[in-house]
TrEMBL record:
Active site (UniProt): 62 (proton acceptor), 132 (proton donor)
Domain of life: Bacteria
Source organism per UniProt: Desulfococcus multivorans DSM 2059
Pathway(s) of this molecule: Carbohydrate biosynthesis; dTDP-L-rhamnose biosynthesis
Name assigned to this protein: dTDP-4-dehydrorhamnose 3,5-epimerase
EC number(s) recorded for this UniProt protein: 5.1.3.13
Keyword Acetylation attached: no
InterPro entries xref list: RmlC-like, RmlC-like_jellyroll, RmlC_Cupin_sf
Marked site: Participates in a stacking interaction with the thymidine ring of dTDP-4-oxo-6-deoxyglucose: 138
A single BP term in Gene Ontology: dTDP-rhamnose biosynthetic process
Keywords: Isomerase
Length: 188
């Protein structure tokens, strides 16, 4: 695997190193030793798959409180997505910055989202499917979010005719700047 640093501290595009022959190819998509050698979360406790029926469907921007913070390794297996992370770590050099990257099934690229970042994506094609590894078990009581169109972050999403967002993802409160995020369990 080849790790290319992204503009968010601790985030990477991870490219597969294919070994090809007349039969096709082989590549590692996960190696605990390689992730640990880069100082990244090297424990995987869960693998998730999400299918999205319609282009323009947006999922996110989610994060877990610090005691349950998740690192994620995202790959698009079918279709295409615009993947976005927002750095919500006050001690990070890229605090309150966002970054977006297009992932699709044709490219040999994944994205590593570090703990403490809100994360979400928009489907750029009908019948899109993603698979992602997670470093921490999901805890619904620790889930929080940032609204996908919060003016504080001004994420530049791809232009689509109809953005489809769940009621939950569309109703997160305004962020409004430093210190606005809850840091304790039970704060909302």
């Amino acid at each position: 695997m080849i790790f290319d640093a992204l503009p968010i501290e601790g985030a990477y595009a991870v490219r597969l190193e294919k070994r090809e022959d007349e039969r096709g190819f082989f590549a590692r998509a996960w190696c605990q030793r390689e992730f640990a050698a880069h100082g990244l979360a090297a424990t995987v406790v869960q693998t998730n798959i999400a299918g999205t029926r319609r282009k323009g469907t947006l999922r996110g921007m989610h994060y877990q409180l610090a005691s349950h913070a998740e690192a994620k390794l995202f790959r698009c297996n079918r279709g295409a997505i615009y993947d976005v992370m927002i750095d919500l770590r006050p001690d990070s050099s890229t605090f309150e910055s966002w970054y977006g990257i297009t992932l699709n099934a044709r490219e040999d690229r994944m994205v590593y989202v570090p703990e403490g970042c809100a994360h979400g994506y928009m489907a750029l094609a009908d019948d899109t499917e993603v698979m992602y590894l997670v470093s921490e078990f999901y805890n619904p009581d620790a889930e929080r979010g940032v609204r996908w169109n919060d003016p504080f972050f001004a994420v530049s999403w791809p232009a689509v005719e109809n953005v489809i967002v769940s009621d939950k993802d569309g109703s997160w409160p305004d962020y409004a700047g430093r210190g606005n995020l809850p840091d304790e369990e039970g704060d909302r």
